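To assess whether the prediction recovers the assembly geometry, we first specified each molecular entity separately, as shown.
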Amino acid sequence: DAKTTQPPSMDCAEGRAANLPCNHSTISGNEYVYWYRQIHSQGPQYIIHGLKNNETNEMASLIITEDRKSSTLILPHATLRDTAVYYCILNAGGTSYGKLTFGQGTILTVHP
Amino acid sequence: GAVVSQHPSWVICKSGTSVKIECRSLDFQATTMFWYRQFPKQSLMLMATSNEGSKATYEQGVEKDKFLINHASLTLSTLTVTSAHPEDSSFYICSATTGGYEQYFGPGTRLTVT
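The predicted structure of the complete assembly is given in tokenized form:
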């Protein structure tokens, strides 16, 4: 699976939108963009995924650029409980289905 | 949502002993389970993929004779760390999937080998 690049850390004020970027310039046509997060000393939690269209669920929105070389995860109204490490992961399925390759992620800190 | 549990949540053992960690899918049947390891301040590293009734597939560099994985049913997978050493001290996390797009992760097991 192709590699992703994320900023090591970001800050956000409580109640404001948190926009987490991810670069994946070598993404393949069949690779989905997944976002997971890991709160300290817990297992990761699925947030959202997409192929080429923008996606929204109850947790977040995912914006994927038209050329699919980058994406942004948006937490519309960040709370203190959203403080976590956020991972942007590519997965093509097939024989590699489910085998998630975690990078270093972005440490998001939400301040009061 | 789907829940995955792990037992124990933390364990301390002496060097040379073996430790078994259980991973259970509580409200769904998991076609595939995964085992990850996470060292302090590092990211998760996939160790192996486990399908019910078949041998686990280990990632490169993971010793299959040291990390024994058994997936006896669609709701239970176990990881046994044999002859544990201090360098095996880590946070072990399992995940499970029904074959859909989402993986459900357990809360993790912290292993300390003294």
